[in-house]
UniProtKB/TrEMBL annotation:
InterPro entries: AAA+_ATPase (IPR003593), ABC_transporter-like_ATP-bd (IPR003439), ABC_transporter-like_CS (IPR017871), ABC_transpr_LolD-like (IPR015854), MacB-like_ATP-bd (IPR017911), P-loop_NTPase (IPR027417)
Pfam family, one: ABC_tran
Species per Swiss-Prot/TrEMBL record: Paenibacillus agilis
Basic residues bias: start-end ranges: 1-11
GO-annotated cellular components: membrane protein complex; plasma membrane
Keywords: ATP-binding, Nucleotide-binding, Transport
Ribonucleoprotein is among the record's keywords: no
Protein name: ABC transporter ATP-binding protein
Chain ranges of the ABC transporter domain: 58-276
Amino acid sequence: MKKLRLKRKQQQKPDVSSADTEKQPTIEAEATVDIKSKVSTAEWPQRKVTLAPDQPLLEVRSVERIFDVGSQKLHVLKGINMQVMQNQLVMLKGRSGSGKTTLLNMLGGLDLPTSGEIWFRGEQLSAWSDDKRTRARRDDVGFIFQAFALMPLLSAYENVELSLRMANIPRHLWKARAQHCLELVGLGKRMYHRPFEMSGGEQQRVAIAKAIAHKPLLLLADEPTAELDTQMVAQVMGVFQQIIRTENISICMTTHDPTIMEVADHVYEMVDGKFVS
Ligand SMILES: Nc1ncnc2c1ncn2[C@@H]1O[C@H](COP(=O)(O)OP(=O)(O)OP(=O)(O)O)[C@@H](O)[C@H]1O
């Protein structure tokens, strides 16, 4: 059995005063981080989030997803109910093909349920127009999916800067924010290395820095620790704990790895399109 050097979480209270406000530390992480360069939050584009402390950031209500495959109907999600509270780490576990990625795509507004509702920051995301979902994805969601890999010819710094450019963050904020995010994931000294000059765990940490650079409310990660060795898995999970604390973010990730589940606030186990307790 693999042993991870992860510390258990202590009691956490949600903080909803503002998406950009620093919170009291409530969890321990062993990732080496050096948070020196902070971007002035006053300059950052303002977003309106009016959630009560006990209101979920994300809520899934009776969601079903049926795909048409040729003349057949493939019933992949069969009545999913779940919540991600503010500043929580939630994991989805389940066998290959159980429906985790299908659900994660919906949580990020990349796909829509056949029936049921998805609520995000107090509004029904599943009823939004394509444009509104695209804007919410750009502004409030960060993705770590295989399909959103790093640009191989760009340095770690340039990769993170690119995501700030794509999120329409004002140019004068890029440098400090990109440096801050790379320091946050413990790569302050590797900023100018390109992906092929880095280990798998380092590349995954660049992907995290890139996904959180625009200060999303929600980070969605599909198997972010797959392909990593035990030590790198611990580093990545440490970074996740750290960014929940310092970036006021919630994380929902899929995993097959039972050794990391103890650091989650909640684990949903999916079997054949349904959650089992
Ligand atoms: N766009 C689609 N059209 C048809 N079938 C799909 C589509 N997307 C997913 N499926 C099917 O839905 C089922 C669940 O797939 P999904 O990728 O959600 O599983 P998963 O739990 O994430 O698996 P893994 O752990 O291997 O990534 C699979 O049988 C898959 O073939």
